[in-house]
Amino acid sequence: MSNDDSSKGIDRRGALECMIWAGTGVIWTLSGGVPKSSQLLGTSPAQAAGKAATGFSFLQISDSHVGFNKPANPDALGTLKEAIVKVSDLPAKPAFMIHTGDITHLSKPGQFDDAEKVIGESKLDVHYVPGEHDLIDEDNGKAYLDRFGKNAKGGGWYSFDAGGVHFIGLVNVANLKAGGMGSLGDEQLAWLADDLKGKPTSTPVVVFAHIPLWTISADWGWGTEDSARALTLLTRFGSVTVLNGHIHQLMQKVEGNVTFHTARSTAFPQPAPGTAPAAGPMLVPAEKLRGLLGITSVEVHHGKGALAITDTPLATS
Amino acid sequence: MLKLRTRRRARAVFIAVTLAAVPALPVRAADTEVNIENFTFAPKELTVKAGTVIVFRNRDDIPHTVNGTNAEFHSKALDTDESFSFTFANPGTYEYFCGLHPQMTGRVVVTP
Fold it and tell me: What digits encode the pLDDT tens for the residues A253-312?
């Protein structure tokens, strides 16, 4: 990823249109680690346009589960297509997209093919990390790594720089141990320490991985057992944003300089922790489904030290 | 009316006694099934005679695997209603878990 992407920052008109597109969404602005939320309609368009003019945006999609066809969503490929139409309709083109895993439901070649074809319609560069559903081919992840891991290290992790931000894609769904949760492992943590060595603390860092890097529910395995070791390496940075998927619902937490955020799925929702006997696809009335699926847009505003995260459902009901 | 209720109660007691008796006895070599449902193995603990075939069947809309903690056995990813069978030939205690959702654990105790 070259720094040229930063030149594609949205202009005033684009920002205004973006506000309209985002509809009733809530925009989170982080300033000095303190989140401020405001309904988009309450944001001054001039302020918003002024901020956007010096930055750039990228997109996150997650948990597309291509191949899933159970009652909770009989057509997961169809809702992925709807999500990509939303991306293509954006008035300001994002610099690129990240996909935080569970691209497919069962790691089958046809499912990867379908996913790539539909996501390719966005005409954006896509940076993938795997979910546990992407590593269940007979060869323990070869299908995923052959496609998406060519420039990655070890089990598929990597980093790149774009628009002055350091992006780190981590893998926490491989070699999981009995009784545990997500895991990064020693080899990846050593790589991370090396990757961050010498980086100025003023560099904004975005870390993305499938399973949340904070414990949302240990009972449901919604956490990463050695995430504290990764976060320790990141504490010296002034702005760290951690983007995850896996739990198919929005959740956010701010701890010091670190903002944790989970994105919606494009396939099916899951229950909030503790509200059902188990995790898994949650059946909702058909007219409610698209309100629980969606995409996430992240804006980087240079000089403001703030990343704005906007979640948009596929439909508002 | 009273008679009917008494008869019902007698039948209920009979069924309860029968059900309670089953888990206490090691099951003979016929197929025994472990259900994978709601992200749990049920029963979580099972005692069987050596030579018993255990069938693990996934009832969830999410794939699961059955992995021996010491790699004694290892299923492929089981989609909904797919199953994995393993013959527990040797006595011992076998711990296992789901490789996708490792919080899911179970145990098979094999008696001679």
Answer: 999 999 999 999 999 999 999 999 999 999 999 999 999 999 999 999 876 666 899 999
Residue range(s) defining the domain that contains residue A81: 57-295
The domain that holds B102 is classified in CATH as 2.60.40.420
Q: How far apart are CA A292 and CA A267, in angstroms?
A: 9
Residue B48 lies in a domain: yes
The answer to whether residue B5 is domain-embedded is: no
**Cα separations in angstroms, A120 against A81, A98, A108, A123, A265:** 10, 12, 18, 6, 18
User: Which residue type does B38 have?
Assistant: N
What is the number of domains present in chain A?
A: 1
Question: Of A132, A219, A277, which has the smallest distance from its Cβ to B100's Cβ?
Answer: A132
In angstroms, the separation between the Cα of residue A116 and the nearest Cα of chain B is 22
The question of ipTM being above 0.95 is answered as no
Is the pLDDT at A15 greater than 80, yes or no?
Answer: no
Are A136 and B65 within 8 A, CB to CB? Answer: yes
CA distance A133 to A148: 14
Please name the member of A136, A176, A278 whose beta carbon is closest to the beta carbon of B39. A278
pLDDT score of A240: 96
**Separation between Cα atoms, residue A171 and residue A130, nearest integer Å:** 7
Q: What is the pLDDT of residues A162-190, one digit of tens each?
A: 999 999 999 999 999 999 999 999 999 99
As a whole number of angstroms, the distance between CA A227 and CA A184 comes to 7
Range list of H helices, A213-283? 227-234
Q: Is residue A51 part of a domain?
A: no
Whether B30 is in a domain gets the answer yes
In a domain, A315, yes or no: no
CATH code of the domain containing A202 = 3.60.21.10
How far apart CA A22 and CA A27 sit, in angstroms, is 9
Shortest distance, CA A85 to any CA of chain B (angstroms): 27
| Domain assignment present for B19 | no
CB contact under 8 A, A181 and B103: yes
Q: How far apart are CA A155 and CA A34, in angstroms?
A: 35
Q: Is residue A29 part of a domain?
A: no
Give the 3-state secondary structure of residue B12. Answer: helix
Give the pair of three-digit tokens for residue B107: 């145990």
Closest CB from A68, A136, A177 relative to B77:
A136
- Within-domain flag for A145: yes
Give residue B88's domain range. Answer: 26-111
Tally of domains within chain B: 1
